[in-house]
Amino acid sequence: MGHIFIIVLLVLIGVGFLIVVQISAAKRRQALSQWCRSRGLQFDPTPNCDFGDRYPDFSCLHQGNRRHAQNVMEGRIGKHQICAFDYHYETSNGKNSQSHDFSAIILTTNLPLKPLLIRHKGVFDRFASLLGFGDIEFESAAFSKEFHVASPDRRWAFDVLPQTTMEFLLDSPKFVLEFQLCQIIAYRNEIFLPADFDSAIAVIEGILSRLPSSLLQELQGVGE
C-alpha cells in the first residue's frame, strides 16, 4: 500500500511540474508577443529544428543535439533587420543528458564584417593567460582584464574596438558577441526577459555606431 502511495505521489508531482512548465511557457509567449507588437515584429512561437541552418557560422547554434529555436521574432528595428529567439539543445555524457536553453538576437547589417568574438572572461581564461595562452591584448588594461577577444585578423579586432567602444562595453550589460559576415549575434547562457532583447540590440548598435569613419569607408568600399 505504501508503494502505491509513493507512486501516485510521484505521478502527481510530475503532472504538477508539467503544468507549471506549460503555464510558464504560455506567460513567456504572451510577454514576447506583446514585445513584438510594440516594435512591429513578427512572432512565431513554433519550435524550428532547422533554424541553425540559416546561420551556419554561429557556433552557439550548433552545439549538442535535439536543437531547435522557438519564440522567433523577426523584423526591422530602426535601420537594421533583427531576429530574436530562444534556443534549446541537449548534451550527453553517454548516460545522462542535460538540457540547455538560452536567448539570442542576430542583427543584420549591410557591412561586410569579419569574424570576431567578444565575451567576458571566466576563470579558465584567466588561468590560460597565466600559462601564456592569452587572447588579443589591448592598451586598455581594464578592458583586457575583463574581456576575451579573439579573431583570425588582429587588425580587425583593434579597428572594431577603439577606446570609445571599449569604454562603452565596460559599462554595458554582459553578452557574448560574435561577428560573422554581415551579422552580429548577442547572447548569454540564460533566457532573456523582453527588456534584455532591447539591451542586446543597444549593445550591438552601440558598437556599430562607434566604428571609426576610416573603417566604415573601407567596409562600404568593399561592399559596393
What topology emerges from the helices and strands here?
Elements: H1 2-39, E1 42-44, E2 65-77, E3 80-92, E4 97-108, E5 116-120, H2 123-130, H3 141-146, E6 147-150, H4 154-160, H5 163-170, E7 176-180, E8 183-188, H6 194-209, H7 213-223
Antiparallel strand pairs: 1-2, 2-3, 3-4, 4-8, 5-6, 5-7, 7-8
Number of strands: 8
Please identify the oligomeric state. Answer: single chain
**Rounded radius of gyration (Å):** 21 Å
Order of helices and strands: HEEEEEHHEHHEEHH
Q: Structural class of the secondary elements?
A: alpha+beta
What does this structure look like?
The chain is α+β, with helices and mostly antiparallel strands and 224 residues long. It has one domain (2-223). The protein contains seven helices and eight strands. The protein has helices at residues 2-39, 123-130, 141-146, 154-160, 163-170, 194-209, 213-223; strands spanning 42-44, 65-77, 80-92, 97-108, 116-120, 147-150, 176-180, 183-188. The protein has an eight-stranded antiparallel sheet. The longest helix has 38 residues, at 2-39. 20% of the residues are buried.
